[in-house]
Every structure is written in C-alpha cells, then in structure tokens.
Amino acid sequence: MAVAERTPLVEMRNINVAFGGVHAVDDVTVDLNAGEVVGLVGGNGAGKSTLMRVLSGAHPADSGEIQINGEAVSITNPRDAKAYNIETIYQTLALADNVDAPANVFLGRELTTRLGTLDDGAMEDSTRRVMGRLNPNFTNFVTPVKSLSGGQRQAVAIARAVHFNARIMIMDEPTAALGPAETAQVRDLIRQLKAEGIGIFLISHDIHDVFDLSDRISVMYHGKVVGTVTKADVTTDEVLAMIILGKPPTEVTKEELEELHA
Amino acid sequence: MTDIAGTAPDQAPAAPRMSLRGALAATEIDVRLFGMLIALGVILLGFQVASGGTFLRPTNMTTLAVQAVGVAILATGMVLVIVARNIDLSVGSLVGIIAMTYALLMADWLPALGFADSPFRWLIALGIGIVLGVLVGALQGFIIAYIGVPSFIVTLGGLLAFRGVVWVLSQGAAVSGLDPSFQLLGGTAEGSIGGDATWALAIISCVAIIGILVYNRRQRRRFGFPLRPMWAEVFLGAVGCLVVLGLAAFANGNHWPPGAAARYAQEHGIPCGTPCDLKISVGFPWPVVILIGVTLAVTFLATRRRFGRYVYAYGGNPEAAELAGINTRWTLVKIYILMGILCAISAAIAAARLNGATLDIGQSYELYVIAAAVVGGTSFAGGIGTIPGAVLGAVVMASLAYGLSFMGVNSSIQNIVAGIVLVLAVGFDTYNRRRGGGS
Questions:
Q1: Do the chains contact at B325 and A112, CB–CB below 8 Å?
Q2: pLDDT tens digit at each of 262 positions of chain A
Q3: Residue A134 in 3-state DSSP?
Q4: Which of A122, A255, B14, B283 is the most buried (most CB within 10 A)?
Q5: Distance CA A214, CA B235 (A)
Q6: For residue B119, is the peptide bond before it cis, meaning its omega torsion is within 30 degrees of 0?
Q7: Considering only alpha carbons, which residue of chain A is nearest residue B9?
Q8: Residue range(s) in chain B whose domain bears CATH number 1.10.3470.10
Q9: CB contact under 8 A, A116 and B305
Q10: Cβ of A103 and B326 within 8 Å?
Q11: CB–CB of B93/B162 below 8 Å?
C-alpha cells in the first residue's frame, strides 16, 4: 500500500452518528488523497450520505475525528466545511427554487460592490462563464431555477461546487437525474477535476460509474465499512458481493457467491 | 406569464409585430404589480362614479393615503416575515406599547425628568421607541430562531401580553398631549411638507428614476448582457416621471383649510381678506413621505443586500440556505428586529394622528397587515412576495375601506367586503400561479 505512505488529504477516523437508537454510521474510517476519486457504495441506508453529511458540515458527528492534511479540524456547520474548501453536490441539489441560477451559485458567498450591495452583474457574468465550461446549452440566467429542467438544475448545483476552488469535493449521486449526454459530461468533469488535483468522494448507485471513475472503492453496509479496495485489484462482481453480503471478498464463501449468481 | 418565462433573453431581437404582452415583457414590468395598479385604478374610479364625482379630490386622497400608511409601513416588513415562512401576530400590540410609551414619555416621564422644554423631546421619545422595538423584536426573534418555538405561538403570546402591558403602563387610561413637533408626523395640513418641497421631492425622484435606468443599462452593457429595447427604457422613464410629477401636482391641489391659513397669515403678517383667501399648498403629508422612505429602504434591504437574498433563499428552501452556509437563525432574528423598528415608526404616526395614545391603539393591525401583504402577492408557502406589492395591497385595502365609508356604508359591511376581497385576491393569484407554473 504505497498510498498510505503520504498524508492523506482527508481522513475521517472512527466516525459515529446515531439517530435515536439507529447507528447510521458506526465507527467508520475512510480517507482520500489529492487527485483521487474514492467511490462510496452500499445499499440504501448503508450510511454513505450520512457519512458525507458529516464531512460537509450538514450533520455533526457524535464522535470521531476529521483530519485535513494531517491536522485535526472541527467541522460543525457548512460554513466550516467551505472554509476548508470542501464543496458538496447534494443528491437533493439543495437549490433555492425561487431565485435564479447566479443567486444559487453564489448563495452564501455573494459578490458585493464597494458599497456592500449585491453585484448581480458580476455574479451573472461569472455564472455565465462557469456554465459555458460545464454546459454550453445553459442559457437561462434570469428566471427562478424552479422552471429549469432536471439536467439544468444539476448543472447549477455542480457550478456552485466547482466555482469556488474546491480541494475536496463530495458528489452524492451526481448523475442520478441526468440523461446519457449529460451523464457523459459529468464523467468528463470528474476526470478533469481529478486531473487538477482535487480529491473526490463519489457516492453512486451505479456500480459501472463507480468502477469507471474511482481509484479506490469503500463499501458500506449497515453503517459500517465492509472494506476499502483498490479498483485494479477487484472485479465488479466482488464489489457487488461486498455490497449485498456485507463481507470483504476474502470472507465470502463459494456457496454465497453461487447463491448471488443464481 | 408562461411564455415570458420561456423566452430566452438572448433572443432579444424583437418580433416584427409586437403583441401587448410582448411589449409588456420587453419593459420587464412586474405583471402582477401592474395588474394590482389597474385594480386600484378601477376601485378608485368606481367610487368616483358611485359618488357622483366627489371622491377623487386631493383632500380625500390625502386622507386615504394617510390612513393607509400605518398598515403599509408594517406590511413592508411582514412581507419578509412571511417570505421566510414565519408570521408576526404581535405587530398591533407592539405598536400599542410603543405608541403608549411615546405618549407617556412626552406627557409625563420626560417632563418629570426635566426635559419639559427640550426641543429634542420628540426625538428622544422617538429614539427610545425605536430601541424598544429593536429589543422586543430581537427577543421574539431569538425565541423563534434559537429556541425553536413556532413564530405563530411566540407572536400570539406577544399579541396577548403586549396589549396587557399597554394597560399596565397607562393604568387603564388614555394619554394625550404630545410634543407639537411630534404631532407633525400625523400628517395634518401643518404636518405636510408643503408645495415647494413636494415639487422638489418629485423632481429628485424623477432624476433618480432616470439615474437608476441609466445605471442598470450600463451595468448590463458592461457585462455584455442583453439590453432592454431603447423605447422600453424611454417609456419606463417617461411614465415614472409623469406619475411622480402628476402625484405631486395632485397633492399640491390640496390647500390648507381656511382657518389654519388665516392663523398662518396672521402669524407671518401676510395680508389676506376675510374670509382668508390665502392658498397654501399642502403637498405630501409627512406620513406619506415616511412611507415612501420606508418602502425604498426595505426594498433596498430585500433586493440589494445579502440579508434580503438570504431571506428569500431561506423561504424558497430552508435546508438549501442552511447547507449553503447561511446563518439562517441570525437572519430570522434580523427580520424580527426590522419588524420592531417598523412598529416604532408606525406607532409614531398612529400616536401623532391621535395626539396621544388610547388603550386600543394599533388593535387588529396584525390582521390588516397580513391581509395587505397577502393581497400584495406574498405567498404563505414562502419565498415569494415583493415590498411594493405589499404597499399596494395596503393601499387597495385602505381604498376599499375609505371608499365604502365615504359612501356611508357602515363598518360591518366594510369588513365583509374586505374579507371577501382578501380571499378573492389570493384565490385569483393562486389560480394564476398554478396555470403559469404548471407548464
């Protein structure tokens, strides 16, 4: 494991989150290096999104430690996360439907004029630029995002994440609402961001997406990490077995595997 | 609505034959607001016809405007409260407390402290009233935002408790005798800015309208965004100026009552016959000038500052606002602080008009204020509503009430009409939105 030699960009250690009696995230440890894509996979309710909500500051952990570049940090709200250049694309997109695309892209980080008023011109201008890169078909910068298509709304959510010099990016099902062409665009974007040295946590239900884009894959099952594997060392079947059975490939018996394929 | 929303701004080159709807879209006038202006015009003209041409006179319209101000000022803040998915039922009682405080300060407390002759007496009172509004607003906002008690409950408690405080403060009696300077806020003939100042204000407004149009066009050009067609800019500027100047001329058509004019003539040694034929233009009453200032200030906060952006984003999607890193709780507290300040301003005008404070001053304001905001297009679903719309809503409701009482209709019928109009206006709006948003 040559990767373990250097300090990871992000390390989440022994993270615990409980909702009432349910242990949604149970003593989970994952890490992420610069320029690396780590796929987070698992069934519904496995705890992937909750784990990432801890990192993005949306939900504080009950216990555990987060290190960024080897230094312990405290992330208790989304502002903290953004201060560490952690950007998140939520599955729900988290857009304010009643305001336009530039307002959403800059939400919470508005550009202002010297007089302290909103600089809508500059914000629209920047949004046009970043959209030109992400999705050149995007032309509607003035109506509330409620009236946009699913793909366009997704583009707004992505634009918000990439515009602010992210070092760490969390993508929760970034292609779930997209058609084939737009999905291909997002895949290209992920490769481009990776090439720029950004570390990416990718949550996806689509095992092929994950295999295509990830360097390593962490599999979660009922709140625990079953195992973290390097993509080159495993097959999709092995990862699927981990997702469904909740055991690392070495512990899976022949009978179980056959049952899976039956 | 639908085709306006669907038109990409880049396809600006005008169609060869322009429809009325297309022309309206090119000017980017808020269609809703435009519709309300027309409704207001219909109401005023209706009363004009029904009254045989005696309704639309400067003196009536001035009275109507002054009556609308108290509610309209509060409605500007209520829009933000409702946009942020909350409610404030305590405004009427808070107006009561603050108005009673003004009256007691000027009639009893300040004189007792030796400020009886201070020319700043009224300013001290006003300052204390605003501080009181800020404190009460901050307290209610804190309980709502940080402790998490629903605003309906917190402000319902305020509605009950604050009215009780009014009684305790005044020991159950009305208080009268305000500072003469303070009384000017009530908007009598003396409490108006006069003919010259009215013209000056109108001309300044006219210049400001043109300045804003030019600035916006420059900003759009700076970034290479699609521009409004030139005719639309000129049209907007011309209509804006005409309206402002027309209103000024109309307000100046109102003259001081003969008794007051005679007194003024005598004091200033101006000869005038008996009965005195001196014509002094009244112009805009102070309350109206204050309302204009408040409307501009709150609109500025709502549309040009981060605060307003956060209020609307929170109303559109509270979770998204939180995830975007907005301090949503503090934003809510600020809304209630603003509401407290507006209560202090509204209370000043209410007390000045009465030259004192009664126990029921401000009573039921909360209902009229919420009605005004909602008639003005504010949605209880959150995220939608404009300040000018709410002011217009207040003026529409006040016009109905004033017009009906002008026609001699009693107040129970007035309430029936107001209730029906409220539900009809919101029903019409909901229907329109559903049709517009459905496709």
A1: no
A2: 444 457 899 999 999 999 988 899 999 999 999 999 999 999 888 999 999 999 999 999 999 999 999 999 999 999 999 999 999 999 899 999 999 999 999 999 999 999 999 999 999 999 999 998 888 888 889 899 999 988 889 999 999 999 998 999 999 998 887 888 888 888 999 999 999 999 999 998 888 889 999 999 999 999 999 999 999 888 888 888 889 888 887 777 777 777 777 6
A3: helix
A4: B283
A5: 58
A6: no
A7: A140
A8: 32-45+55-188+290-427
A9: yes
A10: no
A11: yes
Q: What is the pTM of this model?
A: 0.91
* CA–CA separation, B345 and B70 (whole Å): 8
| B-contacting residues in A 136-165 (Cβ below 8 Å) | 139-144, 146-147
| Chain B positions in Cβ-Cβ contact with residue A136 (cut-off 8 Å) | none
- Determine the Cα–Cα distance for residues A43 and A64; give it in Å rounded to an integer: 23
Q: Which residue has 């600020």 as its token pair?
A: B334
Instruction: Yes or no: say if B407 and B46 are a contact pair by the CB < 8 Å rule.
Output: no
Task: Tell me the residue type at B182.
Answer: F
d(CA A239, CA A248): 8
Can you tell me the distance from the alpha carbon of A237 to that of A243, in angstroms, rounded to the nearest whole number? Answer: 10
Full strand arrangement of the beta sheet holding A37-41: A86-89, A168-172, A199-203, A37-41, A216-221, A224-230
Of B344, B255, B224, B239, which Cα lies nearest the Cα of B57?
B255
Of B9, B223, B306, the CB nearest to A125: B223
The CATH class of the B32-45+55-188+290-427 domain is mainly alpha
Alpha-carbon gap, residue B261 to A113, rounded angstroms = 49
For residue B26, which of B48, B4, B44, B49 has the smallest C-alpha distance?
Answer: B4
Instruction: Give the burial string for B31-54 (b: 16+ CB within 10 Å, else e).
Output: ebeeebbebbeebbeebbeebeee
Element (H or E) spanning A70, and its range?
A: none
Strand positions, DSSP E, chain A: 10-19, 22-32, 37-41, 63-68, 71-73, 86-89, 168-172, 199-203, 216-221, 224-230
Cα separation of B62 and B46, whole Å?
18
